[in-house]
Please model this.
Amino acid sequence: DQQVKQNSPSLSVQEGRISILNCDYTNSMFDYFLWYKKYPAEGPTFLISISSIKDKNEDGRFTVFLNKSAKHLSLHIVPSQPGDSAVYFCAARKAGGTSYGKLTFGQGTILTVHP
Amino acid sequence: EPEVTQTPSHQVTQMGQEVILRCVPISNHLYFYWYRQILGQKVEFLVSFYNNEISEKSEIFDDQFSVERPDGSNFTLKIRSTKLEDSAMYFCASRTSKTGELFFGEGSRLTVL
Model:
């Protein structure tokens, strides 16, 4: 199932710089996109989301951009901090019916922020 | 902060044995889910549960799997006869409303030998 793809398995960034994590999707029925962060031995934690009617959503250091025509979204973290080091998952869901809780995840990107 | 709790954190079982994974969702949540992640693979949706019935399930969720909410607080996933390929981290999740944020538990690691 390749409906949501994160093509970069890992990303290494210096503290204070910008981290950009990318995600592509293929299913046009997806209308809501989320980013989750996961530390080892913990479950995924919701970070930020965006509806398909928007192209940008910002929450503190985290901004998600959505390009519907390219079926691409990205997560920007500025400035990056060592505590941001984790696995970041992109996820998507379809609208309507019983599908709200059914998320389709990408493979994840391991972000390492060096002091 | 309220959280989803899961037990056991790790279970080792022999192939063919029954396993029950337990979850206590956040108390005012109404929608419940199981996901799993096989080592090195994506997190995959298994099943959603609302109003004491399954609302959606994936192809993975075959007759060997069942869920129930026996007492209004616990939410369980039962695998009737485990297979080697059931080895994975199983995550329980819950949400308060139909479109609210999903809160995940820390996961239960199942190892089938």
